[in-house]
Amino acid sequence: xxxxxxQHPTKKKQEEKLSLGDLxxxxxxxxxxxxxxxxxxxxxVEIEREEERKRKERKEREKNKxxxxxxxxxxxKWNDYK
Length: 82
Fold this sequence. Notes:
- This is DUF3886 domain-containing protein.
- It comes from Litchfieldia salsa.
- Helix content is 70%, strand content 0%.
- The chain is an all-alpha fold.
- 0% of the residues are buried.
């Protein structure tokens, strides 16, 4: 006698093919997408603020440099004018 092949339940295969988006309500998915957009926007704004703060800090440091620091950074050499 030939052995009969056992058929796997098709229900299990269908469950494997379903994605998380299929299982969730469309309203919940849209809320999650909106939240994701808001978080990305907040992150972008935070990065811009940090860059602006660093620019101001650099400008302030440059403004408060001593004469010696400015002289050391200068590309001019006093030997050239001797």
